[in-house]
């Protein structure tokens, strides 16, 4: 039995068939409903046959337009990458957020403290709220930033721009003044390109 097969067997031994487990490209992914997310995470950490004691990464995902409009039931998801040091195995956990208008899931900072800044990043970039987070505020964009720039419907130019205003002696915010335009690269070759004539 391979290590991945033992991991799948251990997950089934603890949770039964409650959650969808996928073994794809030599990686195990478990899809968990938002309502079970916090309890599931705590069990992953505390049960000795699983012992996922380290959170490697947490990120948000926007599935807008992914594989066609009806491919996913929810637009947003939160994905964890976990490591068990004692068993030397890894696990990916994905939780789909129930509400696309106000996306929110439980915070897991109490379970893995490393989630703190990762959850702030997912909030900043995707607008996903983490219920119970001790200090959920932007972490990479500035405080005056409008919107969430990793959402697929966020405009490339953004909504606001900032610049230093000499007359005010400070940085000011104003609506974006860039006119949207279509940029198509064009290839223009002269007749003498490459040292010869082309026919």
- Give the mean pLDDT: 88
* Class from helix and strand fractions: alpha/beta
Q: Please give the order of strands in the largest beta sheet.
A: 1-2-5-4-3
Bin the helical content.
10-25%
Shape: extended
Instruction: Examine the secondary-structure arrangement and name the CATH architecture.
Output: 2-Layer Sandwich
Q: What is the number of E strands?
A: 9
Q: Mind telling me the CATH superfamily name?
A: NADH:ubiquinone oxidoreductase Nqo5 subunit
Uncertain runs are: none
Order of helices and strands: HEEHEEEEHEEE
According to CATH, what is the topology?
Beta Polymerase, domain 2
In the residues, how many domains can be counted?
1
CATH class: Alpha Beta
Largest sheet, described in full? 5 strands, mixed
Radius of gyration, rounded?
23 Å
* Distance between the ends: 64 Å
């Amino acid at each position: 039995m391979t290590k991945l097969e033992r991991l799948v067997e251990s997950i089934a031994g603890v949770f039964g068939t409650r959650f969808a487990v996928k073994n794809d490209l030599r990686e195990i992914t478990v899809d968990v409903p938002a309502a079970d997310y916090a309890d599931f995470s705590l069990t992953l950490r505390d049960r000795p046959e699983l012992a996922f004691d380290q959170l490697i990464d947490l990120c948000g995902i926007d599935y807008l337009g992914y594989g066609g409009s009806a491919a996913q039931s929810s637009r947003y998801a939160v994905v964890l990458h976990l490591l068990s040091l004692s068993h030397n195995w890894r696990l990916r956990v994905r939780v789909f957020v129930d509400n696309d208008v106000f996306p929110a899931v439980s915070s897991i900072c109490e379970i893995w403290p490393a989630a703190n800044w990762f959850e702030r990043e997912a909030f900043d970039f995707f607008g996903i709220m983490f219920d119970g987070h001790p200090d959920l505020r932007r972490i990479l964009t500035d405080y005056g930033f409008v919107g969430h720039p990793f959402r697929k419907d966020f405009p490339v130019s953004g909504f606001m721009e900032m610049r230093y205003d000499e007359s005010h002696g400070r940085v000011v915010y104003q609506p974006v003044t860039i006119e949207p335009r279509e940029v198509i690269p064009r290839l223009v070759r002269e007749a003498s390109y490459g040292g010869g004539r082309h026919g």
